[in-house]
Specification:
The complex is a heterodimer of chains A (212) and B (183). Chain A is an all-alpha fold and 212 residues long. Chain A has one domain. Chain A has eleven helices and no strands. In chain A, helix 2 packs antiparallel against helix 3, helix 7 packs antiparallel against helix 8 and helix 8 runs parallel beside helix 11. The radius of gyration of chain A is 17 Å and the shape is elongated. By secondary structure, chain B is α/β, with parallel strands linked by helices. Chain B has two domains: 60 residues, no CATH class; 104 residues, P-loop containing nucleotide triphosphate hydrolases (Rossmann fold, 3-Layer(aba) Sandwich). Helices cover 27% and strands 27% of the residues of chain B. The chains are: A mainly alpha (212), B alpha/beta (183). Chains A and B meet through helix 1 and helix 6 of A and strand 5 of B.
Amino acid sequence: MIGALIARDVRRGLTGAAWLPIAFFLLVATLMPFAIGPDAKVLARIASGTLWIAALTAALLPIERLIEPDRADGVLDQLALHGVAEESTAIAKIVAHWLTFAPLLLIAALPASALFAMDRAALVRVELALAVGTPGLASLAVAVAAVTAGLPRAGALAGLLLLPLAVPLLIFGAAASGDGGSAALLLEAAISLLLTAGAPFVAGAAIRAART
Amino acid sequence: MTALLRFEDVALRRGGRMLFENLDLELAPGEALQVAGPNGTGKSSLIRLAAGLLRQERGRVDRTPLGLADDALALDRELPLARALRFWSKDVEDAMTVLGIDHLSAVPVRFLSSGQQKRAVLARVASSGAPLWLLDEPLNALDADGAARLASIVARHLASGGAVLAASHQRLPGSWRRLELGH
């Protein structure tokens, strides 16, 4: 059942709205050089931080379709009746969301890096930091989606919830993208693991609490 | 024979209001029970409590594996009907035939009428293989043919040792034991 759920969510993501956050990510990355100006040195300095901000805001876009449609349509109830624990549902949702979000983001980071005149080494650092950070980001998105599912103005509320919680990931992710020699990547990995390990329990409890 | 569903001294509170108290009921294999009563007396809540989707305030609920048909479709709108049903159960052809929707198997779920959707929801429960069926307002949106097909699929389920608990304010086709709420 879990495998079928992951396959279903990936299929629905890739045939639907998975491209939207990626387009948004590239758009934000494109706006920055326009706003800052064409100075290659300045752009290279701010590149990693900007790409992380773009990734965080792009991660907000799909939140409303992660949990709420399945809650409203009774899919979450039916999964529970089929003996799937809410935590397992949340894990499946996290895996599926990561699969439809992270690979596309990593690919989109290639053209984005060109906009900032990043060199090869910087690009590798950014890709590595994004690859390490995206599981945590996907988990956080699913947990926040579950907590806000069914609430009015859930999208705006989700942003207010997710962005502060993503700050540690942003700090170490951007640091790891900028300076490969520091321990930032390890700390980012630790935070990403913490979010990935905690999110299924938060999301599972939220799904149960949202039942009426 | 052991009961497929048993409520012992159950009380249910929703939104600060006690819907019912001291409710005992037992559903043995082959039994069909209709929960009746005016709107707002807790028929749907009783179904969701029986499904384990709500928690009782007091008492004890024992249940066997069950299938639930309520207002929620729980089928992917963009998929053909047969494929959408197959997400929940491998063997759906027989249930689709009995409910008269086998000719719709290649039609995407979003194009189905509300009566056809109701039949699809009933087919999901019928193909689940669960011994206990919970049906919330099963007659909603069904035409006369749909109601007759519902009666026959329920009769077949009861004959094979299953049990059905249905909530409805209308008269259900077939012979049902009745439980009145709100008195």
